[in-house]
Specification:
- Two copies of one chain form a homodimer.
- Chain A has 696 residues and is α/β, with parallel strands linked by helices.
- Chain A folds into five domains: 147 residues, NAD(P)-binding Rossmann-like Domain (Rossmann fold, 3-Layer(aba) Sandwich); 120 residues, Succinyl-CoA synthetase domains (Rossmann fold, 3-Layer(aba) Sandwich), CATH 3.40.50; 163 residues, Rossmann fold (3-Layer(aba) Sandwich), CATH 3.40.50; 76 residues, 2-Layer Sandwich (Dna Ligase, domain 1); 113 residues, D-amino Acid Aminotransferase, Chain A, domain 1, CATH 3.30.470.
- A seven-stranded mixed β-sheet of chain A has the order 3-4-2-1-5-6-7, with helices on one face.
- In chain A, helix 10 packs across helix 18, helix 12 runs antiparallel to helix 14 and helix 15 crosses helix 16.
- At the A-B interface, helix 5, helix 10, helix 11, helix 15 and helix 22 of A face helix 5, helix 10, helix 11, helix 15 and helix 22 of B.
């Protein structure tokens, strides 16, 4: 592979700077390289010279016979800068800095780290760390991470990328504990130079890796991270991510409604989803999704689950219902074939209980699996039983697991075996799994079923949203502060968003004349870009009869001037009242570093109280918007539940896409745009109010 | 112990009926009894006589030197009845019937089972099964279940009671896999006689059991089961239950709203909660909650979590936020003491990262734990780290785990250690755990934190709701069919439930006269117990101006007669219209076998669309009702969010309790009562409509 991080992550020659028999890091790295079987060139460097780990120690990187691909720096923090100067001067282009004591320690450390960064930039070096535990490239048999003793590190296609060194160790220990095969594990530490985005980008092209498990505390460069994730998706690799820090996500105050609805974490959720990232909320799920995908790859089709326990079938049915995971009916052909195989009292449905008859006939489970895997509606088969226990302890179980594994290997449909619940792995079970080639996934049905569901969704949604053709806009005012409805109306018009008619008038008398142009009643609103919450200062009057318009408008002007004497009032906006409908809130917030995110939900008091909001990273097309609407709890109201008129869904999604495109066309100065309410009544979709907030 | 099931579940003498060297069941039961060290009297019985398992075989139970406490029957299904006749005639009072081929096989099997049941009733026998895998009473060293080979069955205080034999084995395997100590495990099979309720009742009094884990497919006798659970709670034992079959729960149609809101499964949820049962949705959670409680007992106070990884702190903080689990702030005294212990860069908050300094000072973790456990706000301490890995693989880790275990044992605050993620148990780790007495709970923080949260809630809520003083009612019509608002109004009055004023009148002219008694506008509804959905047939007119009442009332009578010519119309109900407020739906459904369950939520279209409903088993008092209201997503509306007037919560809960008490006073013929809407506006709480449905 030829990636800009190849030298860093696939070095053929390595200098261990700070090597010493007295350093436990040095000892452990040497052990790790030995255990993994590193077959490149290895040099030890220490200004003191002598020998370490039974090998000659060079006094400087300059003394080495070749310029190594990479320097692994594990000297005390105060010695890092001199050591790195030596490394850089020798022409080494890649380094891992294990040493801590930098930005993570506060202001002073941050200054030293900046000096280090400057040195590396000057010399064009790629650096992992500082304060990084390094990495293990299992496929390349390179261990530049002192991985702790314990179970064997099995080679496989799951890559781990984590900002936390401790979490990397937890994940590696869990993987080894449950026999999950790894291709790569890295801790990015302080991310002075190389960050998660760079690593994911590398792994997206790494031949040994089929799935990338990411633990993130923060994203240094969100758009680079998302781009790397999309590159992984394009290479048919799944990125699964545990992003922490949800509970500290600050709600933003850009606009009353959209701001509180688009929390920081929800924004991240929407962008990760759009980039094809499966987000999970535990380290176990992170590894189970990765392990499952490493066995299945993309899953195109329904899930069939086989077991030999009625109780497990019940558990699976409930779990599937909770997840919204459909267990498709088997075709009559499949049912017929199963009928011929299974005992009379068995029922050939999905999930399938092959019954205890599998104890008497060890081939039964595998034979049933073979039939189900051929069903045209089935895209993945999960065999859930006490596989490890049976293979280890009972003769029929061993035969059954062997047969199951053979059938799974020969099947064109991805097929995995899973213990019904999470289960300890005895040394004997590890052996049996290797010997029989058991396609076992860890985690039990309770974690594997959600993983399968996520993989199905990922497979279905892994298309790129086409770039949008954006409207051309003319701004009638400078893009600063807050624009209220009257100022925003031309924007909506240019974007093709239908609005309730509205006339801006300077006086109460002209308001009355304007209101005479339509049937009763009328809405009157104060026009002022200085007033965002008009109703709080008496600046909104709804349902005013035509006879009362002039008096009511006059009173409003007095009230508002009394309440906010400094606000610049441009006049009154007069509109006809509209019949009731379903009121939606459609807002877009621009999240610096990420992009624009759309929030859509019920408007009015329901938006905030019921928190029934869906979010979409932009750009998004009509199908994404429709899916978001269908995910709302209030969706039945749009469909016409409880006596409401069904909406024209095509028209509604078109209007929402236009609002989204408008937000994109408003450029980088935008903070937020909010249409609230967007009134929907059958085929009529109209913005009744709108505001734009600029970041400047 | 002296329980009516003592002879069945703690026998001192057992006859194995059907014993034979050729029967694998017989062989496995004998092995299991041998492994567990059964020290009571054991007799083998088989009509063929001879020897089996190296021991004499008696031809009949009559030939035994004593009447055994229990017969374990494992003959072919056709031979069960004759064998049981022999057993019964010999005066044996308890039997376990392993054999299958009864009710679970359909009609024919059901008939044989009924014959068997009759035999047992006649002889006053207690029978477990048929189609039961039997039980293991670990504390009494009695294994009447062929438990499969594998890890050691460790003695502890977790009891397992399951209807599914296969699930019992899964749970036992999981417990053995993760070193969870068991007191008891039973499969109740077909529950011809002894059912889950009986077993829980026994375990509630079993000295060796501190927590009861139940797997249920259906409850034969719900009220007996709930009573047994309450008995367990009274003995400070937690019952944790996985009840499957949620996805098949049929919504009931008794009343349009309440019926669809009170699904079968939600009813079970409410009743289990009221009886102190913690409900979970996976076998893993079932065992983790049980294992945790076995270590902690009731937990009265906040959770403190210690770890040595910042990443784990972030994960824990997010998880706690999702669960609504509060990690209380530590007191200044605790913070001060920790400050003296921990390195300068550590921050003394909860969750607490003791930092990597714990590697250099093996006592640090335990010392920090000791300080935190003394904090007055802390009721439980969880130490989350790589305990098993560290104890097995590194010297400081072993010292640290030993010290942690000593500190935990000496602490007055329940303290558990948990691997950060679920982890495999090597044989060496098992040894270390025994040697050091490590209070380790399995499952990782992702399962243990929810378990702790559930145990905290159980501890807080484990009071009995006081029996209610019910109103005395006079029914003015026979309790059959459906009663509409006019018929129900006297009931509400007798129960002290405030209603909007209403007058029933026979004619449109009298409607107009009644409406003259209050300000505009008026509501008119048709009065007919034959019409439940009045608005569907034009039987409701709202907001009618006084001038229009007579004409509108006359039209209603015509419209309804045209739509439903056979409906008996008693007249018109005329009421004043009320100002808008928050509309609640308050309904009660009587669930045969379980009791009455209250549903409360937003009324109108929101009830069904948003599914924002809470359910409470009755009786319930004001504090239970208040807690239910606070659990509604719409709760902020009642508190006065978004400009609504805050409700008088005391008055509202009082009215809801009165509706609940009314439903109880209506007795066993009630199917449902529904107040919809109950309009709430500040201090005003009024029923605007009500209906009662009777079961006959």
């Amino acid at each position: 592979m030829n990636h800009r991080l190849s030298g860093l992550l696939e070095p053929r020659s390595v200098a261990l700077v700070g090597a010493s028999d007295r350093s436990s890091w040095s000892t452990r790295i040497n052990e790790a390289l030995d255990v993994i079987g590193f077959d490149g060139q290895l040099f030890l460097v220490n200004p003191k010279g002598g020998t370490a780990h039974g090998t000659e120690v060079h006094r400087s990187v300059h003394d080495l016979p070749v310029v190594p691909d990479l320097a692994y720096v594990m000297v005390p923090s105060a010695a890092v800068l001199p050591a790195m100067r030596d490394v850089a001067a020798a022409g080494v282009k890649n380094a891992v800095v294990l040493s801590s004591g930098f930005a993570e320690m506060g202001e002073e450390g941050r200054a030293v780290q900046e000096e280090l960064a400057e040195l590396c930039r000057t010399h064009g070096m790629s650096v992992l760390g500082p304060n990084s535990l390094g990495y293990v490239n299992i496929a390349a048999r390179t261990a530049l991470k002192p991985f702790p003793p314990g179970e064997e590190l099995r080679s496989g296609s799951v890559a781990i990328a984590s900002q936390s060194g401790n979490v990397t160790i937890q994940l590696m220990n869990m993987a080894r504990s449950f026999d999950v095969g790894l291709s790569f594990a890295v801790s990015t530490g302080n991310e002075m130079d190389v960050n998660l985005a760079d690593v994911v980008d590398f792994l997206a092209q790494d031949a040994a890796t089929s799935v990338i498990a990411v633990f993130a505390e923060t994203f240094q460069d969100p758009s680079a991270f998302l781009a790397a994730c999309r590159r992984a998706r394009d290479a048919d690799k799944l990125v699964v991510c545990l992003k922490v820090g949800r509970s500290e996500a600050a709600a933003r105050a850009a606009l009353a409604h959209t701001g509180s609805l688009v929390g920081n974490d929800a924004v991240i959720d929407a962008f990760l989803r759009a980039a094809g990232v499966v987000r999970v909320s535990s380290l176990e799920d992170l590894l189970v999704v990765a392990d499952t995908f490493a066995h299945t790859g993309p899953v195109d089709g329904g899930l069939a689950l086989l077991t030999l326990s009625g109780g497990t079938c019940d558990i699976v049915a409930d779990l599937a219902e909770d997840l919204g995971l459909v267990l498709p009916d088997l075709t009559p052909g499949t049912v017929g074939e199963l009928g011929a195989l299974l005992p009379d009292f068995a029922v050939a449905h999905n999930p399938l209980d092959v019954t205890g008859a599998a104890v008497a006939d060890a081939m039964l489970f595998g034979n049933a699996l073979e039939v189900v895997a051929r069903d045209p509606g089935i895209g993945i088969v999960v065999a859930a039983q006490e596989i490890d226990h049976q293979a280890e302890n009972v003769a029929w179980g061993r035969d059954a697991v062997r047969h199951l594994s053979e059938v799974a290997a020969a099947s064109g449909t991805p097929t995995i075996l899973v213990n019904t619940t999470v289960r300890h792995l005895s040394p004997r079970v590890r052996e049996i799994r290797r010997e029989l080639g058991v396609p076992a996934v860890f985690g039990g049905v309770d974690r594997v079923l959600p993983a399968v569901h996520a993989i199905q969704g990922w497979t279905r949604d892994r298309h790129e949203v086409a770039p949008r053709h954006l409207p051309t806009l003319t701004l009638e005012a400078p893009p600063t502060g807050t624009w209220s409805e009257a100022t925003c109306r031309p924007l909506l018009e240019q974007a093709g968003v239908p609005m309730v008619p509205g006339v801006v008038v300077p006086t109460a008398a002209e308001a009355a004349r304007a209101a005479a142009g339509w049937d009763d009643p009328t809405a009157i609103k104060i026009v002022s870009d200085d007033i965002l919450h008009k109703s709080d200062v008496g600046g909104v009057a709804l349902g005013v009869a035509s006879a009362d318009v002039e008096e009511r408008a006059a009173r409003m002007l007095v009230d508002v001037r009394a309440a906010l004497p400094d606000a610049a009032v441009q006049g009154l906006l007069v509109s006809p009242m509209r019949p009731d409908g379903v009121d939606l809130l459609v807002g877009v917030v621009r999240e610096p570093g990420w992009g624009n995110v759309l929030a859509v939900g019920l408007g009015g008091i329901w938006a905030e109280v019921m928190q029934d909001v869906q979010r979409l990273a932009l750009p998004a097309g009509p199908s994404e918007v429709e899916q978001a609407l269908r995910r709302l709890r209030a969706w039945p109201l749009l469909e016409g539940a409880r006596g409401t008129e069904p909406v024209d869904l095509g028209h509604l999604t078109d209007v929402i896409v236009r609002i989204a495109d408008l937000s994109l066309a408003l450029g980088e100065d935008l903070a937020a745009v909010e249409v609230n309410p967007l009134r929907v009544r059958g085929g009529v979709v109209e913005a009744l109010d709108v505001a734009v907030v600029w970041s400047a």
